[in-house]
Design brief:
alpha+beta; seven-stranded mixed β-sheet; six-stranded mixed β-sheet
Amino acid sequence: MGYGELIIRSYDPQYDRTRVEDFERKCEVGPAKRVFLFTDTLGDPICRIRNSPIYKMLVAELGNQLVGVIQGSIKLVTVHKPPNDLAKVGYILGLRVSSLYRRRGIGSSLVIKLEEWFIANDVDYAYMATEKDNKASVKLFVDRLSYVKFQTPTILVNPVSHRMSRISSNVELAKLKIEEAEAIYRKFMSSTEFFPIDIGNILRNKLSLGTWAAYPRGESWGGVPSSWAMLSVWNSGELFKLRLGNAPLSCLMYTKSSRLIEKLVPCVKLPCIPDFFRPFGFYFIYGVYREGPLSGKLVRTLCRFVHNMASKSKDCKVIVTEVGGSDTSRLHIPHWKSLSCPEDLWCIKALKNEKKNSLHELTKTPPTRALFVDPREV
């Protein structure tokens, strides 16, 4: 390469923490065509994987120069025909290569090295998520590293305002005990793609704010309501912050003017954009499930409840939800189109020869079932 030998090694928190923090600060994430989102990991570069069962971070160096990083986590999930089919999967995230050293094979080398760690830990499949329009990422993983398209989830983002949302008086809300929530998830969602076997650990994590159910008032939760819905909430803002950068001037002007008009003329109800230009946190809704003819309305009511909960937080500025592309629950989850991503892209690769045939079947099967998005991997 002309810059010395490329060295890829495990992340050393004592030596690498500050270097990686500085490196990450220069790298943007998010839908590049709309906005840039910068992350602040609050002094912990591995915060996004720390809550996973097994995790690892690798750094790439040329000489004394940090030129790339990558992270990975491992867990046991259901795939394709659960609950009989279980697989150990490795998730790839946080791949960054310095803009000065791109197109030198550093990204490929980092992914291959992480795959070797997966294989050493008996992982069946490796998978990753990227923006559908991220041509460089798709070219790297699909064209060069033999990953194939697996799912196209929808990411829904809804701003949090200080105005409280109205909760219908015809709906009963109940906060579920962890044991009850775990039992319901195992009963009704264990057949979803990528359902984590350690769901109990997720629900018991300090970042999980709770699980709530909604059903028609007058019916009993102890029985079988004619319609019901449930979801859980994860406080991602405790791990890292986001900040909007390089946004259009019109966006900034609207944000400021809408706030000013709201103060001067409260009766004028303009859609108010929160202050995204300072670091902020967010809540992540996961485990959305519903049954019955009124369940769509119940999902919307639960989302309004979460909004009201978030509005009491000085730090939380948006609520994020990710659901399978064919999951009709997305139609009932409030979101702003301009902030959301209608098609994220998940790609997957079999790391064992005996899994390659099942991979073909897995990726060619229409994604008719729901997709469980693990909040630990957001």
